[in-house]
Specification:
Length: 693
């Protein structure tokens, strides 16, 4: 604990040791060094977590214009996280209204959450990577959850600076082996401490029984069957051990295609139509396989088509929709709007913020995803058509669109347990490559492609527009997005169920990580086999494709008709997708930027103020009653429910941040266009237990 309080008072007299966290200017550390009485703060380690390196006399800058204030403490790096330990963390204001993560602290950064590391050399900011010849006087860490940390190392011992900076760079930027992830250390050390929540009924879809239950729930068991042909992953390592296919499909055909070209059932509608997905067909085909394909496709027609069988809707997501490169590029631009180092930088970009937002195309990508999901919903709901989603590996955009369709059409998926089961079914068991898409191993040839985050952003649009329809809040979604980078639960750290089962249950095998290479050619039917399939099927293929103009007309009629009626929150749910209706997910993206917050504002604070006024009216009414009934005993004053609306933020419950800036705060109207807050006061704040998904 430092011997001085907030700089600015006391003259040259030594101030008494305060009971709050002290703030100092960087230049004062050296002059007051002898007055510092270091109070060791305990580093809390998770099971299996090991301390790697640390540095003392580190100044963590508070979020302030020009970075002139900070908190003194230790900077440590473990095999799980980077943590800053202030001298007296117990002295921090423990505001129970603000969100507290149960796994990581306010000043903790998991190694997987680190996005970029910068060093400041003679007032110049440079990206840090590899071996350094010169070490910085200031360290800046940009996080994937959009936090920005700044540490002054000017007064730290030189050897400690070398150890901590080199350690952080190595453990966050260098390529890793799968078996070296902290996930495995934690799983081994904590296996005897695992407690199963008896209230957890999330369907894991790792047994045949789970798939049969889902078929029965959606009434799809008349035309589809759950199969165990891939049990032990003996047919395909990309598919789950159990899945659902059309009933007439012989299991030997599944084995013959090695998991490719198989129509996988996703969900059935109440009217009998179904949503399916299919991965690309094999490159090489002989006459025997072509004959099998003909029989194979005939089985599909007889099962997934309602009479007349020739009518079906196909969506080739590999060629007629988004590319992964578009998603990656858009988010790379989009996130830069929120990685703000200081107030000056914020105001410098403020004048062109909305033009930068538009040029990133992130909101337009969200709109396109929602529009595609509505188009498919219209085919299934209004036209009773089966829909077959096509993608090269059926593990990226298929997961996204299929999940959105089910969220719109199935109210069960809008419950917390239903939503977690949906993620487990479509993303985890669907083989989404979380390990590669999040680049958890820091492979040099890969970049983060946030497909799952795009899905959560699309879900947030629905939650924001129709909050009564959901059993969970935007806070739940925000914490879920943060959990992508917390290597404790295995949900978001593998490319397939096979990879997870092999490495979590048979670690001694140390199997190498298999990485699928995407074909440079786009489109579902590869060039080598395209003409063969068309010659075989002739006109039948053309009947799979509907006129785009007709689809547009049907879509617009369906969309306008639904929005003209009152909303049934227990039925079909469609989002507004007009330009102004697609908004920035403020709670996630703006929560660490003080200038973007309205102190004492937002719907939560407004509701809190209304409750205060209601309590005051009730109290006055009771006093009036007492005067009219003076012979009765005085009534007890009504308990205070919420008296701290001024302490709430428009980005509740995450942050109540302030910068000591001389510049004016951003006007309320400036952020109103980005989206109002959901009503969180009526809902319990949830913490995501990743074991549930």
């Amino acid at each position: 604990m430092l011997g001085k309080g907030v700089v600015g008072g006391g003259g040259g007299t030594k101030a008494p040791k305060p009971s709050f966290v002290s703030y100092v200017r960087p230049e004062e550390i050296h002059t007051n060094e002898k007055e510092v009485t270091e109070k060791e703060v305990t580093l809390h380690l998770l099971p299996g977590e090991q301390l790697l390196c640390e540095a003392s006399t580190v100044l963590k800058y508070v979020q302030e214009d020009s970075c002139q204030h900070g908190v003194y403490g230790r900077l440590v790096c473990t095999d799980f996280k980077i943590a800053f330990l202030g001298d007296d963390e117990s002295a921090l204001d423990n505001d129970e209204t603000q969100f507290k993560n149960k796994v990581i602290g306010e000043n903790d950064i998991t190694l997987h959450c680190v996005d970029q590391i910068y060093g400041v050399f003679d007032e110049k900011k440079k990206t840090l990577f590899g071996q350094l010849k010169k070490y910085p006087e200031k360290l800046i860490i940009h996080c994937k959850d959009l936090r920005v940390f700044q540490f002054c190392l000017r007064y730290t011992k030189e050897e400690e600076v070398k150890r901590i900076v080199s350690g952080i760079i190595h453990h966050t930027q260098a390529p890793k082996l799968l078996k070296r992830l902290f996930l495995f250390s934690y799983a081994t050390a904590a296996q005897n401490n695992t407690v199963t929540d008896p209230k957890n009924h999330t369907v894991m879809f790792d047994t045949l029984k789970d798939w049969c239950w889902e078929l029965e729930r959606t009434k799809g068991n008349m035309k589809y069957k759950a199969v165990s042909v891939n049990e032990g992953y003996k047919v395909c390592e990309r598919l789950p051990a159990y899945f659902v296919v059309p009933t007439p499909l012989p299991e030997e055909n599944v084995q013959r295609f090695q998991g490719h070209g198989i129509p996988i059932w996703c969900w059935s509608c109440h009217n009998g139509s179904a949503l399916l997905k299919m991965s690309a067909l094999p490159k090489e085909q002989d006459d025997g396989i072509l004959q099998i394909q003909k029989s194979f496709l005939d089985g599909i027609y007889k099962t997934i088509h309602r009479p007349p069988y020739e009518i079906v809707k196909t969506e080739d997501l590999s060629s007629n929709f988004l590319s992964l490169q578009e998603i990656q590029t858009a988010y790379s631009k989009f996130k830069q709007l929120f990685l703000i180092d200081n107030s000056t930088e914020f105001w410098d970009t403020d004048i062109k913020w909305f033009s930068l937002l538009e040029s990133s195309s992130w909101l337009d990508i969200i709109r396109r995803c929602l529009k595609k999901a509505i188009e498919i919903t219209e085919c299934m709901e209004a036209q009773n058509m089966n829909v077959l989603l096509l993608e090269e590996n059926a593990s990226d955009l298929c997961c996204l669109i299929s999940s959105l369709v089910q969220l719109m059409m199935d109210p069960h998926c809008r419950t917390r347990i239903g939503f977690q089961s949906l993620i487990q079914k479509e993303w985890v068991m669907g083989g989404h490559c979380f390990l590669d898409r999040c680049n958890h191993l820091r492979q040099n040839d890969k970049e983060e492609v946030p497909v799952f985050l795009l899905f959560l952003d699309c879900v947030w649009q629905l939650v924001h527009q129709h909050p009564p329809a959901f059993e969970f809040t935007e806070t739940y979604l925000t914490v879920l997005s943060d959990s992508l980078y917390i290597p404790i639960f295995s949900t978001f750290f593998f490319n397939s169920p096979h990879q997870k089962d092999t490495n979590m249950h048979q670690r001694q095998l140390s199997l190498p990580l298999t990485q699928s290479k995407s074909s440079p050619k786009r489109g579902f039917f590869r060039e080598e086999t395209d003409h063969l399939i068309k010659n075989l099927l002739g006109k039948r293929i053309s009947k799979l494709i509907n006129s785009s103009d007709e689809l547009q007309d049907n879509f617009r009629e369906f969309y306008d008709s639904w929005h003209s009626k009152s909303t049934d929150y227990h039925g079909l749910l469609l989002p507004h997708i007009e330009g102004p209706e697609i908004k920035v997910w403020a709670q996630r993206y703006l929560r660490w930027i003080p200038e973007a917050q309205i102190l004492g504002g937002g719907q939560v604070a407004t509701l809190s103020k209304l409750l205060e006024m209601m309590e005051e009216v009730q109290s006055l009414q009771e006093k009036i009653d007492e005067r009219h009934h003076s012979q009765q005993a005085p009534q007890a004053e009504a308990p205070c429910l919420l008296r701290n609306s001024a302490r709430l933020s428009s980005l509740f419950p995450f942050a109540l941040l302030q910068r000591h800036s001389s510049k004016p705060v951003l006007p309320t109207s400036g952020w109103k266009a980005l989206g109002d807050e959901d009503d969180l006061a009526k809902r319990e704040d949830e913490f995501v237990d990743l074991g549930d998904v």
